[in-house]
## 1
Amino acid sequence: MITAVDTSVLIDVFGADTRFGQPSANALRLCLNEGALVACGVVWAETRAAFPDDDEFARAVRALRIDFSPPTEQASTLAGLAWKNYRAAGGRRERVVADFMIGAHAVTQCDRLLTRDRGYFKKYFDGLVVLDPSK
C-alpha cells in the first residue's frame, strides 16, 4: 500500500499543530504500518519551506520514512487537465495547478492520499481514495 502524503498533514506534525498534530501523526503511523509513505515534488517543496535548513528538513522526512516520488508524465498531464476543468467550471485562482499535481500524483502513482484538504480532490480525481486524519 502506497500512501501519498499532502503538505497539510506534514505541517500538522512538523509544526506540532495543537488541533491536528496528533491525529495527523496517528494517521501517518497507521499508513506507514500498511506500506510506504511518499511525497510528490510539490509537497516536498512546500514542506521544505517550513524548515530553516536542508539538514533539518532531511532529518525530519527521514524520521517519518517519507520517500520522494516525482510525478510521471501521466500524472502531470492529468493535473493540467483537471486544473483546466476546474477553471472552466468557474474555479477561482485560489487553487493553482500545483494543488492538482498532488491529486494527480496520488491517483496515478499511489493507492491513496492522506490529506485534510479533501474538497476538490474527490471532485476532480475519480477513484482517488482520500484519508482525512481530522475525522
## 2
Amino acid sequence: MTRNLPPENLRLVSTLRRDGSLEIRLEHAPLLPPGPGEVVVRIAAAPINPSDLMNFLGPADAATARFEEHDGQPRMVAQLPPAEARALAGRCDMKLTSGLEGAGLVVAAGEGAAQLLERNVAFLTLASGTFAEYATVPASACVPLPEGVAPRAGAALFVNPLTALAIAETARIEGYRGLVHTAAASNLGQMLVKICVEDGLPLVNIVRRPEQAELLRRLGAVHVCDSSASTFAQDLAQALEATGAAVLFDALGGGAMAHRVLAAMESVAAARLPAYSPYGSTEHKQVYVYGHLDRSPLELRHDSYGMLWGVSGWVMPSILERVGAARAAALQQRVVAGLSTTFASHFTQEISLAQMLSPDAMKAYSRQATGEKFLVNPTL
C-alpha cells in the first residue's frame, strides 16, 4: 500500500577518498517501494547525535574544510591528517549514509505493515540513514507516536533515552550501589539525572562549568562535581564516599578524567581498609567508555587504582540484549510514556538537509557543545 512515492530520495552521503579527503554531499538516490514487512517514512525530524558525527564527519575539521556546490547540491571536502585517513582506510570509496534515529509519517507500507500507514512513528536504523527525505525501514524498527505527539518530540526517542536507561540498568544488574557520569549536563546526562532521582539510584555527576552544575541541581541532582573548580578533587572524593559509587560511565573517552575518577575511587576504598596495604584495596572499580567527546588518548596510570579495576567499552544495544526482550520492551514503553517529561529532548536549532552542509551550521554542531543539540528537518 503506497502513496505516489517520488522516484528519488535526497540524502546525505559521506565518502572517504583514497587521497585522504573526506567528501560529504547531498545526492539523489532511487527510492524503491517497501518490501514485505517494511515501511517508507517521510522524515520530518532527525537529531544529530555524537554517534552520527563519528560516522559522517569523523576526524574532519569543519573549520578548515572547503564548501562548494556539486551538481546543484552543497558539498563539503576536508583533508584528513594522514594517520586518521589510514585508520579509516577500510571505508575508502564507500558512500555512507548517516543518522541513527528520526521520526516522520509512514507514507508507504509493504505486506504485513499496513497498520502503520498514515501514522507518525519514531524509528531506529543502522542501514537507511535519517539524514534524508525518506527512509525505508522494517516495521519492527518503528514505534508509533502517541496521538498528538509531533515528530519533533519523538525524533530522539531511541539513542539518548535508551542509553540513559541502559546505564542505570547496568549499574543495577552488576550490583553497584551508585554510579558516576561524565559530560553530565548533556541531553543524555539530564535524562540520567531524572531516571536516578525517580529510581533512587545514587549518581555522581561531573560537569565542566558552574552553570551546568546549577542546571543539574535544579533537576534534582544531589552530587554534582565541577571539574573547573579548585575543590574538584575534594568534592569528587566526598561524593564517592557518600554514594559508594564504584563504576564510571565515561562519555569523554579521552584525557585524564577516567584516571582521576579511578584514583579517587581507590582513595576512598583504601580509607576503609582496617590496616594499610601497599597493594591497595581489593574493591573492584570499573570504567565503561561509551563516548568519544574528547579525541585525545585515554590516560591511565594503573598503579593508583588498587588491585581490582577495569576499563572497557560499553554500548546500549548489548545491555538491552542482555536484559531480554520483555525488559527491553518495558524500557522502551517507559520512554514513550515520558516523552514530554523525563525523556524530553531540547534542540537549539532546526536546520534543513542543505543547511547541514553550510559552514556556520557544521562548525556549530561539530563542536558538540553542551546545550547545542541540532535537529534536521528534511521537509524545510
## 3
Amino acid sequence: MTRSQGFVLRSRFLLPALLIALAAAGCGKAQEGHTLVTTGSRRLTVEQFEEYARNGEVMQPYFALPETAQKKALFEDLLSYEVLAAAGARAGFDKDSAYAKIESDALPRLLPDALYEAHIGSSVKVSESEARIFYDAQKEENRLAVIALADEATAKSALAKLGAGTAFAEVAKGMSVDPNAARSGGEIPGWVTLGQLPLDVEKAVAPLKVGEHTGVVVQPNGSYIFALLEKRPRKDPPPFDQNKEEIVKMLESRKKGALVAQYLGGLKKQYELKVDGPGWAVVGDKVLQMPDSTARWLATDPKRAGLSDAELKQAIATWTGRTYTVQDFVADMSKSDLNDRPPAGNVALSKMFVEGKAMNEILVTEAKKEKLDKSPKVAHQVERAKSSYLVSKYVEKTLPAGAVGFPTPAQLDSAMHAMVQASGQQAPPNLTFQALPPQLQQQIVADWQTKHRQALLKAEVERLKADLKPVVDDKAYQAIPWPVPAEAPKEKA
C-alpha cells in the first residue's frame, strides 16, 4: 500500500462531517433525473450527487483528499447517508410527531432564501475588471466608530446631541443599542477599507475627514451614525491575483445586499408594516422587566407571570392581513435561541426583533404567492431535512453516548504515543498517559472516542448495506465528470 492510498483509507469515512453539512446545505434538485442509487423506496440521483459536489460546505471535509479520491469518498458517504435514512424510516422514525412538523418548521427558514434567489440571485454579476477597479481604489484603511440605534427617529435624536456638541463617544455610550459599541464609546475594532462596508455605508463614510461623522444611515436592521477616527495608507495589500476570487465574491455580496435592502424596503411599504402598537407599554413595563423566576412562566402560563388576557391581545405591530400581539412576542421569544433574543429590558432591540419576525412572515407570504413552496428545489431541501432527521434518530438509537465506551489504560498510552509521533517528535520511553496534563488527557480521550464512534458507525453502515442491499448504477457513476462542472449543463430545447 502506498502512502497516499493509506491516507485515503484512513480519511475516507467522513460521514459524521457530511451529516452536518447535508442538514444545512439543502442543495440539489428533487427526485427527477437519472437514478444513481436505489435503497428501498429512496433514490439518490446523478443530478443530486453533482449538486452536492458543487456545494463548498458539503465538500469542505473532502478537499484534504487527493482529487482522484474525492469523488469516491463523497459517493461512499452519500451512499452511507441514504442507507442510514432508509434504516431510520424502517425503524418508524418517520411516524414521529416531530417528523410530521419538519416541513412546516423548515419553510419559514427556506422560503425567504428561495424568494431572494428568484428575484435577486441570478441578476448579480461581477467581472474581473470591476474587481480590479475596486482593488486599485482600496489604497487607504480607516478606523471607525459607530452609534447603533433601533430606528431612524432615535438616530435623529442622537444626531441632534452630536450637533449640540456632545462627544461622539459619550452619545455612543448613552444611546447605542449595541452593548459592545456602548462600552467602547462606539469604536469598531481593527482597520477596514471602505470597500469592506455595505455600499450605502461606504458612500456615507467616504467624504469624511478625521473627526467628522455621517448623518443617519438607515439599514434593514436599524439606523447608524459613523465617525472617522483615523486614516492611514493601506499596509502591504496582497497581490490582486491572489485576492481576486475573494474580491469578486465580496462585491457580489455587496450588490446582493443593496438589492435585498431595496427589495425589503419595498415590501415594508407595500404591507404597511408598523411596529408602534399600544402593546409596547406592556412589553416595556412588564414583559421585559420580569425577573427570571417569573419570566419562566411567560410561554406556558402567562397569567401566572402576571399578564391578563387583555394585555396579551394588545397589538405591538401591524401589517396587511396581520396583527402581531404581545402574546405573539412572548411565543416567539420562547422559541428563539438565547443568542437571538434581545437583552432583558431593551425595548429598542425588542422592536428590531419584532420587525425581523414580521419581515420573515411577509417574505414567506410572498414566496407562497409565487408558489415557491412547491418548487423542486424547496421540496428537495425539505426532503433533506427529513432525511437528516431519520439519520440522526437512527444513529442516536443505535449508537447512544454510552455505546462508545472508555479507552483502556493500554489504549490511552498507545493513543498518546501515536499523537506524539504524528507531531514528528520522539516520546520518552517512560512517558505515560497519567503523566500528561489534564487538558491533554481530555483531548486524547475525546479523540479516541471520536475515532471509536466512527468505527462503530462504519460497521453499522456495512451491516445495513448487506441487509438493505442498495442498488448502484455503476455506469451512471462512472459517467459523472470530476470535478463536476461549475454549472449544471442546460438541457437542450
